[in-house]
Design a protein that fits this description.
Elements: H1 8-18, E1 24-28, E2 34-39, H2 63-74, E3 82-87, E4 93-102, E5 109-115, H3 117-153, E6 158-162, E7 168-171, H4 173-179, H5 183-186, H6 200-211, E8 219-222, E9 229-239, E10 242-251, H7 253-272, E11 276-281, E12 286-289, H8 291-297, H9 318-331, E13 333-342, E14 348-360, E15 363-372, H10 389-395, H11 403-407, H12 412-425, H13 430-436, H14 441-450
Antiparallel strand pairs: 1-2, 1-5, 3-4, 4-5, 6-7, 6-10, 8-9, 9-10, 11-12, 11-15, 13-14, 14-15
Helix pairs in contact: 12-13
Length: 464
Amino acid sequence: MAVLPADPAARNAVLDLVSAGSDLTLVVTPERLIERVLAAPQSGLAAMVTGWEGRDLKSLFAEESWAKLSTRLAGPDTGSALELNHAGPVQYEFPVRYVLRRLPGTDTLLMLGRDLRPLAEVQQQLVQAHRAIGRDHEAQRELETRYRVLMEENSFPLLIVSETTGRIVDLNSSAARLLGAQRNDLLNSPIAQEFDGRRRGELIETLARNATNDDGDFVDLNVRRTAQRVQVSAKMFRASRDRLLLCRIGLSESAQSRESDRSLMMQNLFEKGTDAVVFLDGNGLIKAANESFLHMTDSHSTSVVIDRAFSDFLSRGAVDLKVLLDNVKRVGHLRHYRTRLNTDYMGEVSVELSATLFQDNGKQIIGIVARDSVVTDRVVWPATGTENEGLRNVMRLVGYSTLKEIVDETTEIIEKMCIEAALEMSGNNRAAAAELLSLSRQSLYVKLRKFGILNKETDSPPQA
């Protein structure tokens, strides 16, 4: 840039020309005082910069902006563009991007600024839009959670079906159980294939017609997988430019009668049966017990057994419970498990347990039936080639004493018999057998090889 002319009129003309491409131009003296302020008419800054001339440059900027500007001014070169915030006692604040230039041959500073308020407004709108999107997303998640809770907590089986495609859009767990399949397998599958003798178009047309009928008629259908007779009612609504059918499924009157009779019989069997019945959750806590179980354990009421660990009633405690839970969760059921139950008055009852695993509202439940085996104790112990009753008594100590204590008083044949008995009691589960014998798994495998019980061709011990 050439040196500004000395003539004031010519000097002002040159400054007007230079500042024509800027929204705001500041001419700063070497003493950092504002010599002149030029604001473009279209910028709308004229009213905000009134009274700036003659003021100290520092007084025009916010504290952090002045720190940046003073650092730049202290250097040998004014450098590239700098974004600064103006602030003042009149409570105004606006951003400006300045390009700093020193007039050739002088220490006068020329600050050419571009008003950033439009850009700041756009950025603010963008931030607000992001916040609005975030709020909408949270609101959508909240609504989705409410919808899912309402679907799952509803005791009636519910299906949502697209009228356009005839496919299942959503369903609750009750509907999945009634149709006899997993929820994920039923999603997006044609609804017609879940019922016998119905074509897709015919079934959807019938449901849609009933959905618009004020009488609320039912459609009688047969579930393909479970062969149950059901009644389906439908309600039509629109969502996402698609017409959907909310289908409510219920058992037919005859099926309801049979279901009611069966529930009553099962309830009577539970309450009045001679076998002790107890239901556990997946962690082994008692959730229900019948009168026979209370009688067997000398418990005076259900209040003292509900939410109590079943291991409290097992003579081998946590070892017995772990064997029970591991086997029933792995296979789904367990039969003829021999153990002893503790009573509330320091007694013991020899019992035979059977267990079954099933799901209830998505939670694991284990039903256990316990029979008193004092009279009909017919445990089949491994053949020993001897009728010595003392040896049989020793074998009955398995699980109640450590293997070392038993072996100290017996021979190697008794050790073999005890290992075989533990394997039989645990359903050939070697990890459980090791726990029953208070052995490490590695030690058990050593003894299995010693007595020729381990099949070396198909089994191998776990890695250390």
